[in-house]
Model the fold of this input.
Amino acid sequence: MTNMNAIAALSATTPLVPFQVERRQPGQHDVAIDILYCGVCHSDIHTARNEWGNTTFPVVPGHEIVGRVTAIGAHVSKHRIGDIVGIGCFVDSCRTCVNCAAGEEQYCEGGVAWTYNSREKSDGRPTYGGYSTAIVADESYVLRIPTNLELSGTAPLLCAGITTYSPLKYWEVGPGTRVGIMGLGGLGHMGVKLAAAFGAEVTVISGSPTKEADARRLGAHSFLLSSDEAAMQRHKNHFDFILDTVSAPHDYNRYLQLLRLNGNMTLVGIPPEAIPLRANMLTGRRRSLSGSLIGGIRETQEMLDFCGHHNIVSDVEIIRMDQVNEAYDRILSSDVRYRFVIDVDAFRQGIQQ
Ligand code: NAP
Ligand code: ZN
Ligand code: ZN
Done:
């Protein structure tokens, strides 16, 4: 075991503070990674503040990890020392259930080992995320990063990128599809870039009028202000597909009405509260409402390669490790353009000086 510098939430009501995590020595199938950048996802906040009621403290969040391989086990074949690699929301799964066999490890029936707030499959020890200097993981759950991509903007692809890519693919969004992306935050802005790259007609549905120019710059063809009742009425029965990335409770019925016949709305935002649903919002136009959780390893690699090919990265604001608490407050007031990314390399250098 080696101690690594990190920051952790020790309780739901206190800010993150410096903390040490133990990392195992790399086993035969493991890679050891020096973390360079880690994105700040809204799920980190839900977890650090125990909003989903499932947090075990202390928790070291962070599941948008890009780093450099520093050591490999004897049986590692996929990665070499010096490679730039990524880790997303999970570091292991049962590998044998029907969903793992299908490459949908995020839905593992045997229980996923999440990157933080979870337990290692191998030894049952707590997992700790990317707000730390280094991580050790099985090579099968480590992604290759295309060499042309800028690294700070690549980190958010590991969660925000795959979480939006996967449902856009599943629902076959492409040329001729009218897509609405709800919420222009970390997930939403990646949803806009990806849906536009797939050739869809993209509308941002946002509560923030100040984001209209950015929405268009990111690739949206139009902008719908959700508080503008007349504009909402005009968009009734308009969209084929809506991706809802909103993190806070909101009335799903208002947005379901915007779907045309057979339209689907997929929830990726996970507000902790239950939200009532009116059946006739679905029955009236044979609409469907579904959800989606990140993506499997194979699809995550496909997404990274797609982003490499199209030179797509996240729009980021780089912060220091000691600015994470402040970043959480800014995310909660929708003041993020459009993902905070921690410069973990600078944090490590600072410690070494
Ligand atoms: P984020 O950067 O904070 O973006 C969320 C956006 O939602 C905000 O920018 C804002 O957009 C909108 N919003 C916030 N509060 C709102 C309110 N009260 N009413 C209406 N709109 C509001 O968060 P994120 O990192 O993209 O994550 C979004 C959600 O997805 C979180 O719940 C997170 O836990 C979840 N998530 C799910 C998965 C998955 O696999 N399903 C993966 C990652 C994250 P506007 O200003 O444009 O309105
Ligand atoms: Zn996330
Ligand atoms: Zn499984």
About this structure: The two ends are 23 Å apart (CA to CA). The CA atoms of residues 56 and 162 lie 26 Å apart. Residues 41, 43, 63, 89, 159 surround zinc ion (ligand 2) (CB under 6 Å). The mean pLDDT is 97.
